[in-house]
């Protein structure tokens, strides 16, 4: 009887000894463009308990305090040695727009996943790839949501924690400067809408950067330079950040784009958002504050679910058309840095009022 049990146990361990190397053999296939999520699930998840135990043993109490309660290491990434045998300098950057964390290894490694180990939890990871960029090796990790990434290096390993934004910030705001890059938006007298939108957003950023209130604000921009994120990326940023507010900045044009007397600020909202503190009320708050700050007249609110970023935003969304580029006076204003600052101040005040009202 006992012999049989022993036999079964022996067979079990022999099989395990065979299965584990076979499973690990699959890892070298993890390569450029390979979707790691499933592989992590299959091959690496089992290592998590060990990895997290190791990690806990390596931490000293001070570091645990510094990390803050509730932040767990999600990934442990083995760092390559350089030729002198020292751990390579690395950089970790997050591209909020694509929810991708880039770990740059200053190391001459062609295929990271065949040579080094990565352990951890896969539940936040949508995909992973390794590629060479010049002299660097880059591990690109795309996550299911936008996280704040915490990092530390210890004993030759890089530890990454993906922290929910709302664990760090009281409020998360997404600011979108319309158009960009090849997509100029409206053009009048050689003035491009994309540039006015960006200038207003950069003025707003300056004000938000010097916010000194009691809320911890997490503010993310779809662009701060002349780039052109897709509409999907813009809306996804708001949704994947679980944003409390999503504000898009544009300038208007009337009908065929000829100069007319039509002027004023217009704010677009989602009519399918019927929350009390939803898109429409946010649009009204934006209207009140932008017109107060600029002295511009209110052209009105407009239901605009036909616009992609408005229709798909889970956050209360307002698209502020600051003024008409097809009105000569307003075009002059919109191109003027002082007026842009006033418009930015109006949007800033709107954000503060929205939070006061409970958004
Ligand atoms: Zn526009």
Automatic annotation (TrEMBL):
Residue ranges of every copy of the MurNAc-LAA domain listed in the record: 235-352
Q: Which InterPro entries match?
A: MurNAc-LAA_cat, N-acetylmuramoyl_amidase_3
Instruction: Provide the GO biological process annotations.
Output: peptidoglycan catabolic process
- GO MF terms on file? N-acetylmuramoyl-L-alanine amidase activity
Pfam families from the UniProt entry: Amidase_3 (PF01520)
* Swiss-Prot/TrEMBL keywords: Hydrolase
Query: What's an example GO cellular component term for this entry?
Result: outer membrane-bounded periplasmic space
Protein name per its UniProtKB record? N-acetylmuramoyl-L-alanine amidase
In which organism is this protein found?
Answer: Agathobacter rectalis (strain ATCC 33656 / DSM 3377 / JCM 17463 / KCTC 5835 / VPI 0990) (Eubacterium rectale)
Organismal lineage: Bacteria, Bacillati, Bacillota, Clostridia, Lachnospirales
């Amino acid at each position: 009887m006992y012999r049989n049990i022993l036999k079964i146990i022996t067979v079990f361990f022999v099989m395990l000894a065979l299965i584990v190397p076979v499973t690990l053999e699959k890892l070298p296939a993890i390569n450029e463009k390979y979707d790691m999520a499933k592989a992590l699930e299959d091959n690496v998840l089992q290592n998590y308990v060990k990895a997290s135990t190791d990690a806990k043993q390596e931490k000293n109490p001070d570091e645990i305090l510094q990390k803050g309660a509730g932040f767990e290491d999600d990934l442990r990434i083995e760092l390559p040695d350089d030729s002198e045998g020292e751990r390579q300098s690395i950089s970790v950057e997050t591209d909020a727009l694509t929810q991708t964390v880039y770990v740059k290894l200053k190391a001459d490694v062609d295929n990271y996943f065949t040579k080094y180990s990565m352990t951890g939890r896969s539940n936040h990871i949508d995909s992973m790839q390794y590629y060479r960029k010049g002299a660097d090796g880059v591990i690109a990790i795309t996550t299911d949501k936008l996280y704040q990434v915490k990092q530390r290096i210890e004993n030759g390993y890089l530890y990454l924690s993906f922290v929910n934004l709302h664990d760090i910030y009281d409020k998360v705001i997404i600011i979108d400067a319309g158009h960009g890059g090849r997509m100029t938006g409206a053009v009048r007298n050689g003035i491009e809408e994309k540039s006015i939108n960006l200038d207003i957003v950069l003025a707003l950023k300056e004000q938000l950067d010097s916010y000194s209130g009691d809320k911890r604000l997490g503010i993310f921009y779809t662009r701060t330079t002349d780039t052109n994120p897709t509409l999907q990326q813009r809306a996804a940023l708001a949704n994947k950040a679980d944003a409390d507010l999503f504000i898009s900045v544009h300038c208007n044009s009337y009908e065929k784009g000829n100069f007319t007397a039509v002027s004023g600020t217009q704010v677009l909202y989602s009519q399918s958002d019927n929350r009390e503190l939803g898109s429409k009320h946010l649009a009204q708050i934006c209207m009140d504050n932008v017109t107060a700050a600029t002295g511009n007249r209110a052209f009105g609110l407009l239901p605009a679910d036909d616009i992609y970023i408005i229709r798909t935003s889970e956050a209360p969304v307002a698209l502020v058309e600051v003024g008409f580029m097809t009105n000569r006076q307003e075009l002059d204003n919109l191109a003027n840095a002082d007026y842009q600052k006033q418009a930015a101040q109006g949007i800033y005040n709107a954000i503060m009022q929205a939070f006061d009202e409970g958004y």
